[in-house]
Write a structure and sequence with these properties.
CATH topology of one domain: Nucleotidyltransferase, domain 5
Strand content: 15-25%
Helix content: 40-55%
Number of strands: 20
CATH architecture of one domain: 2-Layer Sandwich
Structural class: alpha+beta
Length: 577
């Protein structure tokens, strides 16, 4: 091992070892900035001393701070991989891709006790509890919590730390079968635990077939209450099983790694496949100092603190894949393969993972409130452009409409538009007014002048929404459209049987509220302006009458040149509400 350090950091790559090993960049106070590995250190280190304009931004930032480099030569790439992983764990270098959110992941454990428990833990258990089965890690607390509640309600698995001598509240609430008081046999309890494990391992179909046989037998014995209970369990298991996205008939556990690149960032999507069904999805956005070795470094860091699967599916094998497989096999204490599929189910899974990674890359610059709204409304793409419509009137007079536009969650005031409503009668008719301004926006001159939105928001309830939808059909516009009712902040959608209520703190709801409030402000401002002009008109008419017909006709009887010019025509309204 040797070290190169100078005040003005420079290094001749040809002086690096021509062998496998690890290199360590340090700053002026010898703090470790970055740890990397290579099968041939001399070839890999050249990358860091290229002209700055040929480097990624993160690499430039590293080299601006680096004041020294160390090399540790090893006998093989496998030894270099093991050493790199150990050094990263020890120093936690700033420029290495640290998967910092791993400490939040949780596991589900079915203990190896006489009456097993279902536990949520941060680390896989050791000691007396280690005899059970471990599932995870779960990156989504919601999915993990939903399954725990489902298992308690359906299979009645206990969660108490020690068996009490009499049933506790969980039993009376229907969340436990009461093994503590002998209310369930050891065999029946073990059967329910096995079913919960089978469901976690993706064998929901087997559970359903087994319970259907029991239900028919119970019905034949005229045990209708037991048969009804089994039917409810079958329906519950069926609902949970339907959440599996892809199912393949394989016995091994697999991980599928899809990668997309955008600028200097890499977006990684990992699908964890348990017995042929997608059980987990994890996603990362990484700054890669070393693009060529990004996949290898990601895999070694990712599985340092996770359960290693039997098979890892990738688009291309890393350069050091043989060493990587040996490292993973030592971690797993079993056989591990890194595979590149050519066709079939594995290729379909890889393409699915890559599509999800590409979506992550596309969403990288999308604001959180826009993404939250997309998820809440189950839209196919983020609503980056939102147009909101509102009506303002005073007992049917001076009826006006407004349209405001939000792009990437922010108001785009240059694209606001206001309308004088033409179809308004003596009585206020919000439905007809909304239908008119929506039709004029998407069938008139505006349709060609301004790009369409990703989402239309109507200030109102189901009536206003229905009018807007009719207008969109007449205008030939196929755009998602919802209504936001102000009193209870309910969201009405044509595809939902009941209105959607989001929490008041939901960022997607806050975005809708900002757009709705801005449309209301813009409409009422225009309404007040017209109303102010209209209320002064009678006084002007009286003054003109005193002046006389000639004086009255002179300024108003003649048409100016601008008035004689042909004006663009808006489409005629083809409907009457």
């Amino acid at each position: 091992m040797w070290r190169e350090k100078r005040a003005m950091f420079s290094f001749e790559p040809s002086r690096a070892p021509a062998s496998a090993g690890v290199y360590i960049f340090r700053d002026a106070v010898a703090k470790v900035l970055y740890v990397g590995k290579a099968n041939v250190l001399r070839e890999r280190i050249r990358y860091y001393f290229l002209p700055p304009e040929r480097q990624f931004g993160k690499t430039r930032a590293l080299m601006q701070r680096a004041q020294g480099v160390e090399f540790i030569s090893t006998n093989s790439g496998h030894e270099a991989l093991v050493l790199e992983n150990a050094l990263i764990k020890q120093h936690r270098p700033e420029f290495n891709s640290d998967l910092k959110d791993s400490h939040r992941y949780t596991y589900l454990v079915v203990t190896g006790e006489e009456f097993p428990r279902l536990l949520t833990v941060r680390k896989p258990p050791e000691g007396p509890k280690a005899g059970g089965k471990v599932f995870g890690p779960f990156t989504s607390g919601i999915s993990r919590g939903n399954f725990v509640r489902f298992a308690q309600k359906t299979f009645k698995i206990r969660t108490c730390q020690t068996l009490p001598r009499q049933p506790c509240l969980q039993y009376y609430l229907g969340y436990c079968s009461g093994p503590c008081a002998g209310l369930v046999s050891k065999e029946d309890y073990a059967r329910d635990v096995r079913r919960a494990v089978d469901l976690l391992e993706g064998r929901g179909g087997e559970i359903i077939r087994e319970m259907e046989g029991e239900m028919r037998a119970s019905s034949g014995r005229m045990e209708f209450e037991k048969a009804l209970s089994l039917r409810n369990k079958i329906e519950a298991v069926g609902r949970v099983s339907q959440r599996q996205v892809v199912e393949r008939h394989v016995a091994s556990n697999e991980d599928v790694i899809g990668i997309a690149r955008k600028g200097g960032k890499f977006f990684v999507n990992v699908f964890s496949i348990t017995r042929g069904a997608i059980a987990q999805r994890q996603a990362y956005a990484l700054d890669a100092v070393e693009p060529s070795g990004m996949l290898s470094q990601f895999i070694s860091g990712y599985y340092a603190e996770r359960l290693v699967p039997d098979l890892i599916i990738v688009r291309e094998r890393p350069d050091d894949s043989d060493s990587l497989e040996k490292f993973l096999e030592e971690t797993k204490k079993g056989r591990v393969r890194i595979a590149v599929p050519e066709k079939g189910g594995k290729m379909e899974l890889l393409e699915l993972a890559e599509r999800n990674a590409a979506l992550l890359a596309g969403e990288a610059d999308t604001p959180n409130d826009v993404l939250a709204l997309q998820r809440a409304l189950k839209l196919d793409s983020p609503p980056n452009a939102i147009e909101c419509f509102d009506i303002s009137t005073l007992s049917g007079s001076f009826t006006v409409g407004s349209m405001v536009r939000f792009e990437n969650g922010k108001a785009r005031k240059s694209r606001y538009r206001k309308f004088k409503v033409k179809t308004a009668g003596e009585k206020p008719d919000d439905f007809a007014s909304i239908g008119e301004i929506v039709f004029r926006r998407f069938a008139g001159t505006l349709a060609g002048q301004m790009p369409g939105p990703d989402l239309i928001v109507i200030d109102g309830g189901p009536g206003q929404l229905s009018a807007a939808l009719d207008a969109l059909v007449l205008a030939g516009a196929d755009i998602p459209c919802i209504a936001l009712a102000k009193r209870l902040e309910e969201i009405y959608s044509p595809n939902a049987l009941a209105p959607l209520r989001l929490p008041h703190s939901h960022p997607g709801l806050k975005l809708l509220q900002r757009a709705r409030n801005e449309a209301h402000r813009f409409a009422i401002t225009y309404h007040r302006k017209l109303r102010g002009k209209g209320m002064t008109a009678p006084k002007q008419d009286e003054e003109l009458a005193r002046i006389g017909n000639k004086r009255d006709a002179a300024p108003f009887g003649k048409r100016t040149a601008s008035e004689k010019e042909p004006q663009p025509q808006e489409p005629e309204l083809p409907f009457n509400y």
